[in-house]
Amino acid sequence: MYFQKFHATIVSLIILRLPIIILRQRKIQMPTEEDYKRLIRQLQEEMQRLDDEIYNRDEKLKEKNELLKQSIPRTEHKKRMAELREEYERKLSEVKTHPPRVHNERGAGRKRIATKEIVARVLALSGQGLSQAKIAAKLSDELNIKIKRTTVGEIVRGNYTPPDAE
User: Fold this and answer.
1) What is the DSSP string of the chain?
2) How far is residue 35's CA from residue 41's CA, in Å, rounded to a whole number?
3) Helix 116-127 crosses helix 132-143 at what angle (to 10 degrees)?
4) CA-to-CA separations, 108 to 81, 104, 149, in angstroms, rounded
5) Which of 52, 86, 120, 160 is deepest in the core (most CB within 10 A)?
6) pLDDT tens profile 36-94
7) Selection from 20, 15, 7 nearest residue 46 by Cα
8) Maximum Cα–Cα distance for the chain, whole Å?
9) CB burial class (10 A; 0-12, 13-18, 19+) of residue 13?
10) pTM to 2 decimal places
11) pLDDT digits over 135-144, tens only?
């Protein structure tokens, strides 16, 4: 295949370049010896380039053949993939059966102030149409605890989990 391409390129170069008619000073002249020498140089350069291309492609084919020789057969590949899938499923089942980790095991961080009762009271007051600031002030007066407007906002939006719910 490479030889056919090479041969076709050479033939096309000869056909296209040999009948050179040079226009010099508006006169039609036949090609000179220098023109033929230049043509021969061009053809030789083209032949060298094509030889190099053929050599490079042959080298790539040899490399790919070596890789194919080193690769494992399809049946072994399927067997290994099945083993890996089984191992993955086994490890996944171990992870799923492992007890969940308790969030904040050491009890570090700011303690939550609102209990389930306070959350229920905030939601009831919010249902009556009171603003978050008014709910916070009312609960601070009633229960003698310091609860902020932002905590009331978290409870109303449903982003707050009381400490006894964990």
Assistant:
1) -HHHHHHHHHHHHHHHHSS--EEETTEEE---HHHHHHHHHHHHHHHHHHHHHHHHHHHHHHHHHHHHHHSPPHHHHHHHHHHHHHHHHHHHHHHHHSPPPPTTTT--SPPP---HHHHHHHHHHHHTT--HHHHHHHHHHHH-----HHHHHHHHHT----GGG-
2) 10
3) 130
4) 45, 6, 23
5) 160
6) 888 899 999 999 999 999 999 999 999 988 888 788 788 888 899 999 999 999 988 88
7) 7
8) 115
9) middle
10) 0.36
11) 999 988 888 8
**Tokens 């191992």 correspond to what residue?**
87
All structural domains of the chain with their residue ranges: 2-70, 116-165
**Integer Cα distance of 119 and 162 in angstroms:** 8
